[in-house]
Amino acid sequence: MTDSPTAPPRTPKLIGVAADHGGFELKESLAGMLREADYEVVDFGDGRPKPDDDYPDFVVPLAHAVARGDMDRGVAICGSGVGACIASNKVPGVRACLIHECFSAHQGVEDDDMNVICLGGHVVGNALAWELVRTFLQARFSGAERHRRRLAKVARLEKIGRASCRERV
Predict the structure, then answer these.
(1) Beta-ladder partners of 75
(2) Mind telling me the catalytic residues?
(3) Hey, which end of the chain has fewer CB within 10 Å, N or C?
(4) Mind listing the domains of the chain with CATH numbers?
């Protein structure tokens, strides 16, 4: 919940990107477009496509940077986007979602304060990916009471931990 209800929403300018071999080409394309659009881009890797690399090695450091507030938002990419989403959401404070259409790209931010968008390098093309990322970056968390209440419940889940969750199931 990054935006204060009393202060104007901050425009995200520092964007982290990360991808394994399955998302490498898309990451490179999006990073270039982000720079051309005057965003500051931090590349968490991979620096070159290696078929035996693993998405958590790049996505998790990006997710930690977003959770700490070092990055305004993050773009995590793997072949399908699923693994990048799963790994990102293991980091407390990260609200990541796999996105394939524009409604969820903005609604996820407006209602759920999504701070990492996950994409599949084998699933979406460069043009659609750029449209999704732009939509994600232009969206602002509404700060509505019902959305803050729901996010507080999600934050409590992060604090419970896996052991406590198993006991309650």
Answers:
(1) 17, 117
(2) 78
(3) C
(4) 14-142 (3.40.1400.10)
Cβ 96 vs Cβ 59: under 8 Å: no
ω into residue 52 within 30 of 0, thus cis?
Answer: no
Using an 8 Å Cβ cutoff, are 17 and 62 in contact? yes
Residue 81 gets the label, from left (phi > 0), alpha (psi -120 to 50) or beta, of: left
What is the tens place of the pLDDT at every residue in 18-56? 999 999 999 999 999 999 999 999 999 999 989 999 999
Strands 116-120 and 96-98: parallel
**Cβ atoms of 110 and 142 closer than 8 Å:** yes
Cα angle 158-164-166, degrees, rounded to a multiple of 5: 110
- Using pLDDT thresholds of 50, 70 and 90, give the confidence band for residue 166: low
Q: ∠97-102-106 over CA atoms, to 5°?
A: 65
Contact 3/139 with Cβ under 8 angstroms? no
For 71, the token pair is: 């990055």
Report d(CA 11, CA 169) in Å as an integer: 40
Look at the block and give the residue holding tokens 């390098």. 121
Answer whether the bond into residue 38 is a cis peptide, omega within 30°. no
| Residue 8 φ then ψ, to 5° | -65, 145
